[in-house]
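Schema walkthrough. Field components (list of strings):
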Amino acid sequence: MSTRAEEGVSATQTAPVPDLRDCGPDGCAIDWLSSKRHSAEIDDMNAFTRFSLEQGWGDGLPVIPPTEARVREFLAANSRHPDEVICALPPLNAHCTVEKIVINAVMAGAPAESLPLIIASLEAMANPDFELFGLNATTAPVVPLTLVNGPIRNKLDIPYRHGCLGGAPTPALAIGRAIRLIIKNVGGQEINVTSQSTFGTPGRVAGILFGEWEERSPWAPFAERRGVKGDAVSVYGTMGTMNILDTTSQSGPDFLEMIGKSLGYPAANGFSPAMPYAEIMVAVNPVWAEIIHRDVPGLEDVQEMIWNFSSLDADYLTSKHRDQLENLGRVIDGRVYLATQPKDVFVVCCGGTGGLHATGFHTFGSCLTQTRAI
Amino acid sequence: MAIGKVLDPMAARADDITSPGPDAGSLAGRIVGFRLDEIWRAWDWVAEYWAGEFRNAGATVKFWRSSQGRTGPEGERVARSLDEFLTGIDVAVVGLGNCGSCTGWTIRDALAAAERGLPTVAVCTEVFEELGRNLAQRGGRSGLRIHILPYPLNEKLKVEVDQVAIEHLPGILQTMGADLAGLKQAAG
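Field assembly_structure (string):
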């Protein structure tokens, strides 16, 4: 969805106007910015952060005051009109305009060059099949994970090697934080107001935004497998990160068995009777990826092995859980499956060359992963 | 210290319907639809009891079981099924808001019923009351009728839940705007 917001056009727009996309920090002949202005201390970061919390805008970390000059400067670096409606984010479903996106991105400290990535991510999340509505309201600690493919990874310094899920000092944190602020301030996700998340997760502050190490991956880039070549984002509703350690395995099948069996635990959302179907994502380090590909060349075979090994003997569940799943027809030959089908097991390659670990990303449930070109 | 202007990062939704919508009135001759789910057995038990009382009052009762699979082809199937269900009833009782996402879907389905002009009540447990009301307001209908059951509920034995259903019958009727006198006469 991409339309123009009526409220973004001022009353002075009666005659033909030039393209003002690059009107810059000094201002436009016409005021395209329709957001309400607030008076605030703008040269004292601590004071402004306190102000942002009082206003309900902040996330607790220091925020950069979104002055008109900063917002215009950000806009000037991009070829988007501020009143362009990108999407509607639940539960509020108000217009998510470029202007609101940019204001929040400025607050988060995101670079202006990241706007296309942020917009693509939001468009992906707004697809009803992603079920952001349920994701934002739930008691679960789910957060949209953003996986980046293509040359933009290097342009924006999106991490995909050592510490790519946390610890690598890159602008990805500010970009992920911008997306989180937008979901809060534009989508209306507020803790204990519209979100009942019992524990939350650290990923709800700066998101989980990382790249795939395409140059070391034996498999095609994740987005390309889903039909989008080049710069792309994929959003996936994850319950957080789960470490999988293996200092013993030497072969591809052994690694896949360890990964699969580690992913399959009874209280994973994928086994919940409340979730009729689920996906599962696993990040494999480049060392393991090479061994796995050597021994199990076909990605479909890799997916099927993880799918099988992550299933559980239904008798391992408590009787009440087993009965509930059986009534839903989810016990197949005595087993229950974490993901609906082998194709719903997503394998990506990233992480440091020290190997030894994989990371599992359990899904929320019925959020279907969405991929969009940037 | 410099005072300057900053731009508001928040979006707002201007529309809101504060009306609770039409009363259910007399249940005699009406079709009352219960929206159930696949999670909360306690809600099945409550709905069964209330349905019996509504039948005693001359109503016909229909049940529709929701799935949280609201995406992809399964989501399209559920949406069609919900549409058919709402088309075939006169009064909607929609539950159960007893977790975050299921409160979200309870409210969303209740809003869909209310949008059709049906007398509609959403049912939540008390821990999720505020979430339900906030989601109704952000969904553009802050006046949505919501009846609150005690929490925890699903953790109780059936005999305990049945007692909750009995105790909350007057309350749900009042929230529905149902004709209490007619129900009492039918029961008597």
